[in-house]
Amino acid sequence: MKKEIRIRCWIDIDGEKFFGPGRAELLELIAETGSIAKAAKSMGMSYKKAWDMVNEMNTRGRRPYVISHKGGEKGGGAEITEAGKKIISAY
Fold this sequence. Notes:
The chain has 91 residues and is of the alpha+beta class. The protein is 48% helix and 16% strand. The chain has helices at 21-33, 36-43, 47-60, 82-90; strands at 11-13, 16-19, 66-69, 77-80. The strands form 2 sheets. The chain has a two-stranded antiparallel ribbon with strand order 1-2. It has a two-stranded antiparallel sheet with strand order 3-4.
């Protein structure tokens, strides 16, 4: 019989969930892949849901956590800001 204690932690702002394990994973995958769409796909979520999560974090946080780049000849992409790296590390 295997026993384990598991704890999940969220950061709330004004009583609403702001940051937790899903958002941490999303930011890590965006940093790894350079793409919100690819990060969403690897998590099995829609691009819209991932974009909504990123937008909410960027809006409610003190500074943006993700910067997206519009498509062009080489396509678009996304990158994690220093604030994004810090929240992942702190979390």
